[in-house]
Amino acid sequence: MLSPTYPIRTARLLLRPMTGDDVEPMLRYKSLPDVVRYVPYGPLSREDIAERITTRWGRTELTEPGQGMTLAIEEQGTGRLVGDVVLFWHSAENRSGEVGYILAPDAMGLGYATEAAEMMLRLAFEELGLHRVVARLDERNAASARLAERLGMRREARMVDEEWCKDEWCTMLIYALLEDEWRAANAV
């Protein structure tokens, strides 16, 4: 089980549960086709975002496999919402999970996604006790692949035409990181 104390602080960010106040800031990036190009949903409306915050994105803890926890990424000091990050708990038996991230265009290139995803990996390995965390991404998303590599993840697979998404077959890349690799890279 994972039940963090919020907000979760990083050097520059706060990771926190989403609220109704996040609808408008999220609309600014989740409604843009280029931003959501490589995620499994199309541009979202205000109503879509509000509904997802109260259902899928509203979870504040992981109590059983099959759940996902999506957190808002907020700049410390300014309070500006710059994106969101997700941790999925796939299996208790295999101690496996998945991490994902999406940022507003004006927050890209600042290291925020790396900083937020690193914290989610810490939660996955140190708090939830996962053994293996993956990142699944469309192979055309070169920026996301570079981010996975910065996180210390290794590319393990290229799944040709694995998913039918947005009216086309998508080739997916699988990046992974093991608990012992995480601990070795983050030893004090």
From TrEMBL:
SUPFAM superfamilies in the cross-refs: Acyl-CoA N-acyltransferases (Nat)
- Boundaries of every N-acetyltransferase domain copy: 13-180
The protein, known as: GNAT family N-acetyltransferase
Q: Which PANTHER family match?
A: GNAT FAMILY, PUTATIVE (AFU_ORTHOLOGUE AFUA_3G00765)-RELATED-RELATED, N-ACETYLTRANSFERASE DOMAIN-CONTAINING PROTEIN
The lineage's top-level taxon is: Bacteria
Which Pfam families does the annotation name? Acetyltransf_3 (PF13302)
Originating organism: Arthrobacter horti
Residues of the signal peptide: none
